[in-house]
Structures are given as structure tokens and as C-alpha cells.
Specification:
The protein is of the alpha+beta class. 26% of the residues lie in helices and 33% in strands. The strands form 6 sheets. The protein has an 8-stranded antiparallel sheet. A 6-stranded mixed sheet has the order 2-3-1-4-5-6, sandwiched between helices. The longest helix has 21 residues, at 562-582.
């Protein structure tokens, strides 16, 4: 038996909160790579943010040994992947490095939206899928029902499904045996020219860029010169090794291995995820098929609170973009906020995570503007432009039509909440396409919906309507014309471009009204009145006023002529008029997020 036959490469995929990270913890314990003293919950979740939120954001690759009952010593390379729809790009990259996948399904919740989406990703990569029914220790667990769901909805044979409890450790050894038995070994070709793919990378302050690679053919050793085909650059290998789960240096990585490569790369732009790495003498080798570029769904402006931190924000975004290749950024300027960046994200959770990482890891104070999607503007002269910022919308008289992105949204819900879910989707301009019963009491409803209506709080609303039982996933479908208008916010007559948003004409009045009411709550009182207006073009559709602080100037007047009091009040009024003309208002971060808290109903 050659070394290749003793290797197994697999990913762990599932819907969010079905137990992937806990199962990874048990696999680390069962294979003996970490001691009980070193063990902690969500061991592979390195980011503080991941632990706090209880979600996986970054996929993590680990190499562990396992002695099977057949007496062979196997090397298992596995990747713990995120479950949230915003991070499915991380899953797709991880799957290209594997021959198999463990599909984790909650024994009480059953098949959910992201379960199906991740299975399709695995099938597209021709992976062998092993179903794992987790959380069998729960009182509501029903493994037999879940097996039937997997067979009916996904079409997977569950005769070899493994029953586990990642919490208690039950079934973990059976799972390791199933991995060895059902997941195929990688092709083993160490004598061929080196061919490997970069599937992740991050920046280390001391060692430069750390690159995660999967070696398909050949061998890579320390001191060797390697060539990056896409970047057309050559480097000398300083170190190779694996994470088991701590960083472990190795003399070489060979065909079938998953590990890291350090080559003294200091410029973060020199590494391209999806690039093919080969040796210098074989640089004419046919490159491996890379990854499909992630498509950003949501765009938002990111600005430093202190304009002097602009340079620091730029460097921080550069470093973070290496760690997370799925967001984009480009410089932009706002009259209200100064210099900043327009950033593209995969979704609203992705946007929150990036903002929090910038604030925590790079110690920045940031203001983020209202999230927007990309609109296609067809001009009367025949040209088409794309905008991701409402302030870039051309004058309305020059526009022939505006098209916005629509998505196919699938909501999995218990049947008792069907009415509430359909109403919530229709309120967001959704059109119901189908409704299918997955089981006796579980339904999947498909809608065609505008992306702009669901990026704010739609998922939270669905969760609250269904008491947390619904799951939701979407994919971009097409662009369609809509009657859209630009809604501007004016503070004391001055336009605040960072608060502008594009909305449907039918909803503009309600959005404007709710936004001005919300802004009134978050803008602090001044020594003068602050007028908050929502306007479409030159027409004001809503107004609220933040009342001024008022000093009691007549407190010292005890009785006497009323004209004395009147004179003091008139003098105060004149003074406030002057302050109104000269006063500058500082808007808090909450003012820019107020639009997210609008209840569109």
C-alpha cells in the first residue's frame, strides 16, 4: 500500500449551528493531537469574533493521524467550513482541496436551506459525501425521520449514515472508520512535476504571507524555488508544514497533502487565491482550474471617525483583503464624512464581521454607511451604467429605466408559520414561485425577491416570525426594471450624502417617515433646533425636529412688567437663530445605521 492510499482529504459541511465546529473538536480529541488540558470549545475558531458569535467565519485546515481497526496508520486532512450563506465562498474553496465531504445534519432540525446549498457545492466538485446525523443525544432527536429527509430531498443513500453526538463524543470512532472506508484516497503522483493550488492565505506580521496549498502532483521542499503561474513570480520556499492543529514544520509536502507554505512574501498583493504553484523548471505546466470569483451582493461606505486615520484604514483593508479575498474596496469621498472606501461584501453578516474585525484587530473607529446593492441604470441616450452608491445616481430626467437585482429565495419553515412567512415576503415585494412539503410538517417556499429588500433585516424578521425554526438562503437570479427613486436626508437644509438610499416609489413615503423619526431619536439635542427632512428630488416628504435645549432666561424676573420677560425671550430667540446658521452638528454612528432599524411594515 503506497503513501497516497493512506491519506484522506475531506471537508465538514452543514447548515449553520448543526455542530460542525464541535464535531471538529471531538475529531481532534479522538485522534490524540490535543490533550484534555489544551482542549477548549470551538478549538479551530481562531478569531475572537467567531467564539463570541458561535459561528465559523474562516475555514480551517487540520492534519491528524488515525490508526484504523484494519491496522493501518492513516493521515486525515480535514477542513472545518462556515455554515452561513454569506460565507459559502469559503466552503467552495475548501471543497476543491478534497475528495470527500462529511454532511452534518441536526437530528432534531433535519435538512435546512444551507444543507442543500452546500451539498450542491460538493456535488459540483465530484466529492464523495458521507451523511452524518449529529446531536442524537437531544430529546427531540429523530434520526430515522432525518434519514428519510436526506434521501427524499437530497437523494443521498443513508444506509451508511453515521449517528453521532459531538457533545458527548458518541459515534466519533465509527465516524473516523467511515471516513477511511468511504472517502476515496487522493491520486498519488510524487514523481510528476509539482502542481498545487492556493486555496487560502493570510498575513503574519513576523513571517509575511502564509499560504495554504493542496498538492496534487509532485513534491515541494524547503529551499526549492517555486513559481506562481498567475502572478508570474518566483520565490524560494522558506518553510513547509501542516497544522496538526498547531503549526508543524515538515521536510516536504507531497502529492495528496494539504499544508502551508512560507516563502518570505512581504507584499500582500503577490498572492492570488486559486493560483497554481509549480517549480521554476516546470513553470510551463498547465495551470489548475482556479475558483469562481465571489460576487459581492452588498456595498457600503467605510470611513474613519478621525479623518487622520485614513492611511491606517487603507493599510488595514489591504491586510484584511489577503485574509478574506471575498470583499473588495476602492477609495471614495463623501461631503459629510470625508475620505473613505466603498467596500463590497457577500451579505450583511459579512459586512458586520469585516467592520468588527477592522475595529478589533486594527484598533480603528469606523462609520459605515447605509448598505446598497448594484443597480443598472439605462440612460435615454442608450448607455448603461452600474452604480453601488445612491449619490452616483444621474439626474432622473436623463434616466430611461432602473433595473435592480432579484434573487431566488428559499425559506424552509414548519407548516404552522407558512402564512406569516408568505405575508412577510410579499410585504418585501416578493413573488411566490412554489411551495413544496419536505415532510408532513416542514415546507420549503420559493420566492422571487428584490435583493435590496432582503439585505437589511428580512432574515431576522423571518426568524422572529417562526420562533427561530426557519432557515433561509438565496442566490442571484436576474436584473428586472423597477420604479425606484432616490431618497435624500437633509439636516438643517444640508444634504447628507452618506444617508441617501434608493427605494421603491411606493415605499418611499413610509421609509422617509420612519427614517426621520429614527434619526430624531439618535441625533443629540443642540442649543438650537435641528430640522431632519426626507426628500425625493426637491419635494420634502417627511420632517421631524430635534428641539433645542432651552435655558430659563426669565428665572430672575419676580413679577413686574411682562414686557421685561418678553424682551429677554425675544433676545434668546435671536441668539438661537444665529446659532442655527453657524452650528455644526456631529452625527453619531447610530444615525448612519438608523436606516437598518426601520421596520418596513
Amino acid at each position: 500500500m503506497n503513501r497516497g492510499e493512506l491519506k484522506r482529504n475531506f471537508s465538514i459541511i452543514a447548515h449553520i449551528d448543526h455542530g460542525k465546529s464541535t464535531l471538529s473538536d471531538r475529531l481532534l480529541e479522538a485522534t490524540g493531537v490535543i490533550t484534555q488540558r489544551e482542549m477548549k470549545d470551538q478549538f479551530l475558531d481562531k478569531l475572537e469574533l467567531e467564539r463570541e458569535r458561535g459561528i465559523t467565519i474562516k475555514a480551517q485546515a487540520v492534519t491528524v493521524p488515525f490508526k484504523s481497526k484494519d491496522g493501518n496508520n492513516y493521515t486525515l486532512n480535514f477542513i472545518d467550513t462556515p455554515g452561513h450563506v454569506d460565507f459559502s465562498y469559503e466552503v467552495s474553496r475548501a471543497l476543491t482541496s478534497c475528495e470527500g465531504a462529511l454532511l452534518i445534519v441536526d437530528a432534531s432540525q433535519g435538512v435546512e436551506a444551507q444543507t442543500i446549498a452546500n451539498v450542491y457545492l460538493a456535488v459540483d466538485n465530484n466529492l464523495e459525501i458521507v451523511p452524518v446525523i449529529n446531536k442524537i443525544d437531544l430529546p427531540a432527536a429523530n434520526p430515522q425521520r432525518v434519514k428519510e429527509e436526506i434521501e427524499e430531498i437530497i437523494g443521498l443513500d443513508t444506509s451508511y449514515a453515521v449517528l453521532t453526538s459531538a457533545k458527548t463524543g458518541e459515534g466519533i470512532i465509527d465516524l473516523l472508520e467511515a471516513i477511511v472506508k468511504y472517502i476515496p484516497s487522493p491520486d498519488y503522483c510524487p514523481e510528476k512535476p509539482l502542481k498545487s493550488i492556493i486555496f487560502d492565505s493570510w498575513f503574519d506580521s513576523y513571517r509575511g504571507v502564509v499560504i495554504l496549498i493542496r498538492v496534487f502532483d509532485g513534491k515541494i521542499s524547503k529551499g526549492e524555488k517555486v513559481h506562481f503561474i498567475h502572478k508570474n513570480a518566483t520565490y524560494e520556499v522558506q518553510e513547509v508544514g501542516v497544522f496538526s492543529p498547531f503549526i508543524t514544520e515538515k521536510p516536504f509536502l507531497e502529492s495528496g497533502d494539504v499544508g502551508y507554505l512560507i516563502a518570505g512574501i512581504k507584499q500582500i498583493h503577490d498572492v492570488f487565491v486559486g493560483d497554481t504553484v509549480t517549480t521554476l523548471e516546470h513553470k510551463t505546466i498547465e495551470p489548475l482550474k482556479g475558483f469562481k470569483k465571489p460576487s459581492q451582493m452588498v456595498y457600503s461606505g467605510v470611513y474613519p471617525v478621525d479623518s487622520n486615520e485614513y492611511a491606517e484604514l487603507k493599510v488595514s483593508l489591504e491586510k484584511l483583503s489577503l485574509n478574506d479575498a471575498s470583499f473588495t474596496y476602492e477609495p471614495e469621498t463623501s461631503e459629510a464624512l470625508g475620505f473613505g472606501f466603498r467596500c463590497g461584501f457577500l451579505g450583511l453578516l459579512h459586512m458586520e464581521v469585516i467592520q468588527e474585525r477592522l475595529e478589533r484587530e486594527y484598533d480603528l473607529d469606523l462609520i459605515t454607511t447605509v448598505p446598497n446593492v448594484i443597480y443598472k441604470i439605462y440612460m435615454k441616450k442608450g448607455e448603461m451604467i452600474e452604480i453601488d452608491n445612491p449619490s452616483k445616481l444621474p439626474p432622473i430626467q436623463n434616466i430611461d429605466r432602473i433595473e435592480e437585482p432579484y434573487v431566488i429565495a428559499k425559506i424552509h419553515t414548519p407548516d404552522e408559520y407558512v402564512g406569516a412567512v408568505i405575508k412577510a415576503a410579499i410585504d418585501r415585494r416578493g413573488v411566490q414561485k412554489s411551495m413544496d412539503y419536505l415532510s408532513r410538517n416542514r415546507v420549503i417556499i420559493t420566492f422571487l425577491m428584490p435583493l435590496g429588500e432582503i439585505i437589511f433585516d428580512f432574515f431576522d424578521k423571518i426568524k422572529s416570525l417562526t420562533r427561530g425554526y426557519a432557515s433561509f438562503e438565496y442566490e442571484l437570479d436576474k436584473y428586472m426594471p423597477s420604479d425606484l427613486v432616490k431618497l435624500d436626508v437633509l439636516i438643517n437644509g444640508d444634504l447628507v450624502d452618506a444617508l441617501s438610499l434608493i427605494t421603491h416609489r411606493d415605499k418611499a413615503f413610509y421609509r422617509g417617515r420612519d427614517l426621520t423619526i429614527k434619526m430624531k431619536e439618535v441625533i443629540p439635542r443642540q442649543m438650537f433646533e435641528v430640522a431632519i427632512q426626507a426628500a425625493i428630488g426637491t419635494r420634502v416628504i417627511s420632517r421631524t425636529t430635534v428641539k433645542a435645549y432651552s435655558k430659563n432666561v426669565t428665572a430672575k424676573c419676580y413679577g413686574g412688567d411682562i414686557s421685561r420677560k418678553r424682551k429677554l425671550l425675544e433676545k434668546q430667540k435671536e441668539g438661537k437663530k444665529r446659532m442655527k446658521q453657524l452650528g455644526n452638528i456631529e452625527l453619531p454612528q447610530e444615525a448612519f445605521l438608523a436606516v437598518l432599524k426601520i421596520d418596513n411594515d
